[in-house]
Amino acid sequence: MLNSSINDREDQYQKLINFTKEIDQEIIKITSALNWTIESIKLDDDNKLVCPYDSSHQISKKNLHQHLERCQWKQEGYNEFDVPLPESSLSLNSYSSIKLDSQTQNKILWEAKEKDPTMKIANYECSTWHKRYISFFISFYIYIYSHYI
Question: In 3, 52, 60, 95, which residue has its Cα 20 to 30 A from 29's Cα atom?
Answer without folding.
Answer: 60
